[in-house]
Design brief:
The complex is a heterodimer of chains A (408) and B (309). Chain A is mainly α and 408 residues long. Chain A has helices at residues 2-21, 35-38, 41-51, 63-72, 75-79, 82-92, 108-120, 131-140, 155-166, 170-175, 177-197, 204-232, 250-253, 259-263, 320-324, 339-343, 349-353, 382-386, and strands at residues 269-271, 284-286, 329-333, 359-364, 367-372, 394-398. In chain A, helix 1 packs across helix 6, helix 1 (2-21) packs across helix 8 and helix 7 packs across helix 12. The chains are: A mainly alpha (408), B alpha/beta (309).
């Protein structure tokens, strides 16, 4: 009871955060579901830094935390953070673990530095270590129909809780990059305040020393960012991504918060389990009917739900008009399987369903046969989800060619 | 005795002549009058209402068909099958016009029917489709229930007269309705040439059945299924007809400004096809359905009653 009285506010905040992450927001404002991860400057501001793009006013939600850190240090961590509350509570389950945390090195500030520097390089590494993203990913993973694969984004949360039971407080005190970021800001501001007061004179050497250490750490981080980008950057293209995806740095920029998967009204977006490599694990990928036989829907032309809820800019917010011009893949017909081409049936269901009029109908021996107009095709999968051939004769393939993701 | 016999004998002679005359008259009459009445019974009647006020057109058409209460009995379970497959506005002609839907719902409600169900297996996400097509507005304030059937809402049925399609999974609420109104919109169709009343039953079966029809001879399957699912009433929206890029559109439109009322699906479709300058030979499923005895595909044998509103 005493515990409850002391922690009631943190509990309520955690519940409210979970409700947001579960996607219980008014239908008219789907973007509200993205408030929680956007509160983290690591996701919203570093994401914008990496994309060098304006991600809408909601990205400014990352600023209050920075300001709070400047004046109050890690106030957020100890009083507001839902992930911090849960991991701290989990640590209480292990009364024998006290003090174990002292043996763990401080990783948090280094982690924050790496994310900041690599984001500045345009290819952020480890952005998915953000606590609000981890929290959000766990709750966003609960969706219908529940499958083991769809729970992918929840794994980080489970790992943090398990680690916190094994070594109490390891997350908040040693690992969390958001905590590290706040601590670094607080230290910088404290140092400045002290020098302004003129009280204990800050030795120039220590400031320089700190900067030098930072620079020394930043150089390999930047190098790693560029190297990883060079090595695997293109793998973002190996799966069909939601509309508005920043394909060139998708695997890096995506924080696996699960918001887009939760937002999709047709459960088309699922965690990728290997198509885009180990570095693309649990990133969102569209599973159209050829990947999921029960799927009867496609990426509906007038729906932009997923693009409104991405905190990092891995998916850019699109208007319906922009979406109509944004391909996510290209449909490919296998004529050997096609009822019209192979069996001379009256079919062209693909043309019937195509919302973009991208199926050209050609007469061959008196039968209408479909041909894809790749300029018009957006890869929505309407054809694939309705193709009557068995096996499916028209399947959407991921975008491969460069410079195809934005059409004028 | 003799006279008596002669009287008796004379009578048959009289009778003979009279019978002969009567028989002759009967033969003559049979040659002229009854054949005409017989032909009248054989001739299928459809009602075509021309005008611009859709609600009034529906009223006029139903009056000409014999009144609402001829089809909608008090306490009946009514099911309507409009075509609401596509996320397009009423003006684009991809779906049955909401004003017609509303007029039929209102007419049925006035007959004190038990319930009005509108199950529609949309081709695009139903939430948007029902909104954009105007269907949500059409049912607003009425007792009608509009929904997209879930897998459990389909029932496996036999189609005994079917040549290819002998089994289908069809919407339970449509099969089990006391009064079933098929109310398609007439439009071009890239696969089936035209989509009219019989083609509209493709929205009455589940997606697996739909796909199997495409694989196994679409036109024959449409005709087969129409031997099974018989509507009580057919109302075809031909106020604006899509001439190309069907069924989804948007395509080129023509404006016959007509609503077709019928009980014979083949006759209704044959007439509606004529608005596109097509005959049952151009739209194979109409011809095949006529061959299966579903209805009359000969425009000369269809009695078209025209009403102007």
């Amino acid at each position: 009871m005493k515990w409850l009285r002391r922690n009631i506010w943190r509990l309520l905040i955690a519940v409210a955060a979970a409700v947001l992450a579960l996607g219980y927001v008014p239908e008219s404002h789907p973007e509200l579901a993205s408030i929680l991860p956007r509160l983290s400057p690591i996701l919203s501001l570093f994401g914008a830094l990496a994309t060098r793009a304006w991600l809408g006013w909601l990205m400014l939600l990352g600023i209050p935390l920075l300001v709070l850190a400047a004046f109050k240090g890690r106030f957020f961590c100890w009083h507001l953070c839902p992930m911090g509350f849960l991991s701290e509570t989990a640590g209480k389950l292990n009364p024998w673990g006290k003090g174990l945390v002292r043996r763990v090195p401080m990783v948090n500030k280094a982690l924050a530095l790496v994310i900041a520097v690599t984001a500045a390089c345009g290819y952020p590494l480890l952005i998915w270590c953000d606590p609000l993203c981890i929290f959000n990913g766990f709750f966003a993973a609960w969706r219908e129909p529940l499958a083991i694969a769809s729970a992918g984004t929840g794994i980080g949360f489970v790992l943090v809780i398990l680690a916190s039971i094994a070594v109490p407080n390891i997350w908040c005190h040693r690992l969390c990059p958001l905590g590290g970021l706040q601590e670094a800001i607080a230290q910088l501001c404290r140092r400045k305040a002290k020098t302004a007061d003129g009280a204990p004179e800050q030795s120039a050497l220590s400031v320089v020393g700190a900067t030098r250490r930072t620079v020394l750490a930043a150089i390999p981080a930047a190098a790693a960012s560029l190297a990883v980008r060079h090595a695997v950057g293109a793998k973002g293209r190996d799966a069909i991504r939601p509309p508005g995806a920043d394909l060139e740095r998708f695997n890096a920029l995506c924080a696996r918060c699960g918001n887009c998967m939760k937002a999709c009204p047709y459960q088309l977006i699922q965690p990728d389990l290997g198509d885009s490599g180990i570095e693309g694990l649990f990133t969102p990928a569209l599973q159209l009917r050829s990947r999921n036989a029960d799927q009867e829907q496609y990426c509906f032309q007038d729906c932009v739900a997923c693009t409104q809820v991405c905190p990092t800019g891995a998916l850019r917010p699109l208007t319906v008009e922009q979406k109509h011009k944004t391909p996510i893949g290209t449909a490919v017909i296998d004529r050997k399987k096609c009822l019209a081409w192979e069996n001379h049936e009256y079919c062209v269901v693909c043309d019937e369903y195509c919302p973009y009029k991208a199926v050209k109908v050609e007469e061959h021996d008196g039968v209408s046969c479909p041909v894809i107009d790749e300029e018009k095709c957006r890869g929505c999968g309407a054809c694939e989800s309705n193709c009557p051939a068995d096996p499916i004769a028209i399947v959407v393939k991921p975008l491969k060619a460069k410079g195809k993701q934005q059409k004028k | 005795m003799k006279s008596k016999t002669s009287k008796v004998n004379s009578k048959p002679a009289n009778l003979k002549r009279r019978t002969f005359l009567k028989a002759g008259a009967a033969v003559a009459a049979a040659a002229i009058v009854p054949t005409e009445t017989l032909a009248d019974e054989k001739k299928t009647k459809i009602v075509v209402v021309h005008g611009t006020n859709l609600a009034k057109m529906v009223e006029a058409g139903m009056a000409k068909m014999g009144g609402w209460d001829k089809f909608f009995k008090p306490g009946a379970k009514v099911a309507l099958k409009p075509n609401l497959a596509w996320n397009s506005t009423p003006e684009q002609g991809g779906n049955t016009h909401p004003d017609i839907l509303r007029a039929v719902i209102k007419g049925a409600e006035a007959c004190k029917v038990k319930q009005i169900l509108i199950p529609e297996n949309t081709c695009q996400p139903e939430k948007m489709t029902f909104k954009v097509s105007g269907a949500n507005d059409a049912i607003e304030g009425t007792s009608a229930k509009l929904y997209r059937p879930k897998p459990a809402d389909y029932k496996e049925v036999d189609v005994p007269k079917g040549k290819i399609c002998q089994k289908a999974k069809a919407t339970r609420d449509l099969i089990e309705a006391d009064c079933l109104v098929n109310m398609p919109v007439a439009k071009h169709h890239s696969g089936a040439t035209l989509t009219l009343s019989m083609k509209n039953w493709m929205g009455a079966v589940d997606n697996k059945t739909r796909r199997s029809w495409h694989r196994n001879g679409l036109h024959q399957c449409i005709a087969d299924f129409s031997t099974f699912l018989k509507p009580t009433l057919i109302v075809i929206d031909a106020t604006r007809i899509m001439l190309d890029h069907g069924p989804q559109g948007p395509g080129k439109l023509a404006y016959p400004n007509e609503i077709i009322f019928a009980t014979d699906p083949v006759a209704a479709d044959t007439y509606a096809a004529s608005l596109f300058k097509k005959t049952p030979d151009d739209v194979p499923h109409i011809k095949l359905a006529a061959e299966l005895g579903v209805g009359c595909a000969d425009l000369k044998k269809i009695d078209v009653e025209r009403v102007e509103v």
